[in-house]
């Protein structure tokens, strides 16, 4: 392994492990050159490569900093958040924060699109990119349609991929909103209460049965939604 590759691997490892979190200032070139007993040119080559991959941002006269994870999701796609985080070059982690089974309330039925009361499971969790919160997930599952969910702990696997592996969805509806973070969401995301957030709400069906409603809440400055389309053809 060349010295350039060693420097590259060391810095990349510290970033992806969360040891150097987003916003952390990387040691200056002269400091790294002294640490590795090499020229500044060798260090510069490694930092330039890291900047091209998006892991660090180089600021003139200020130094190099670990970037914030910034995601782009297609509006009409259902994507695995774990793969989304990993595509950004960050280690993924997941933490269950709540799981409650109950008889559906009027609000639950509105979110799921249910006409009559039914047992539901509410699951809340936080997804992480490195050691930084990536998004908060608030999910309702219709237990009349997916009874096996009642026995699942969701300690090891998030409810999204668990559902996708068991209940193939046939229809989905997305609603996108800008919201201010309330106190619980702000605490989970590590932002100030009232901060702008991007919320993606999705309701899915399987052969006409209402399956789940999920609300994904992202810090507003760290997420973008992308839609691809083509002009309609004249008839």
Write down how many β-strands occur, each being a DSSP E stretch of 2 or more residues. 11
Write down the domain tally.
2
- The CATH C-level class name of the largest domain: Alpha Beta
CATH fold category name of the largest domain: Chorismate lyase
Distance between the termini: 61 Å
Oligomer: single chain
Q: Which regions are unreliable across 5 or more consecutive residues at pLDDT < 50?
A: none
Helical/strand content category: alpha+beta
Supply the key terms.
single chain, 235 residues, alpha+beta, Arc Repressor Mutant, subunit A, Chorismate lyase, 2 domains, six-stranded antiparallel beta sheet, three-stranded antiparallel beta sheet, 7 helices, 11 strands, 36% strand, elongated
Q: What does this 3D model show about the protein?
A:
With 235 residues, this protein is of the alpha+beta class. It has helices at 3-16, 29-36, 40-53, 81-87, 106-112, 159-166, 183-189; strands at 25-26, 56-59, 63-66, 71-74, 92-103, 119-129, 132-142, 171-180, 196-206, 209-219, 223-226. It folds into 2 domains: 3-66, Winged helix-like DNA-binding domain superfamily/Winged helix DNA-binding domain (Arc Repressor Mutant, subunit A), CATH 1.10.10.10; 71-226, Chorismate lyase (3-Layer(aba) Sandwich). The strands form 3 sheets. It has a 6-stranded antiparallel sheet. Strands 1-3-2 form a 3-stranded antiparallel sheet. α1 packs across α3 (40-53) and α2 (29-36) packs across α3 (40-53).
Outline of the structure:
The chain is α+β, with helices and mostly antiparallel strands.
């Amino acid at each position: 392994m060349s010295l350039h590759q060693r420097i590259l691997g060391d810095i990349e490892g510290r970033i992806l492990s969360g040891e150097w979190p987003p916003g952390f200032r990387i040691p200056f070139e002269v400091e790294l050159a002294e640490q590795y007993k090499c020229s500044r040119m060798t260090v510069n080559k490694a930092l330039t490569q890291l900047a091209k991959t998006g892991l660090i941002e180089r600021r003139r006269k200020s130094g190099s900093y670990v970037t914030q994870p910034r995601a782009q999701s297609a509006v009409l796609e259902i994507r695995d958040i774990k793969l989304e985080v990993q595509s950004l070059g960050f280690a993924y982690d997941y933490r269950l924060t709540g799981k409650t089974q109950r008889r559906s309330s009027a609000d639950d039925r509105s979110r799921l699109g249910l006409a009559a009361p039914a047992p539901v499971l509410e699951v809340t969790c936080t997804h992480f990119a490195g050691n930084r919160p990536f998004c908060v997930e608030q999910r309702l599952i219709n237990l009349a349609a997916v009874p096996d969910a009642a026995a699942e702990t969701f300690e090891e696997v998030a409810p999204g991929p668990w559902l996708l592996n068991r209940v193939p969805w046939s229809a989905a509806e997305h609603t996108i909103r800008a919201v201010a973070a309330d106190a619980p969401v702000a605490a989970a995301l590590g932002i100030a209460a009232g901060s702008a957030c991007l919320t993606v709400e999705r309701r899915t069906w399987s052969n006409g049965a209402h399956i789940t409603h999920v609300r994904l809440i992202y810090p507003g400055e760290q997420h973008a939604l992308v839609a691809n389309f083509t002009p309609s053809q004249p008839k």
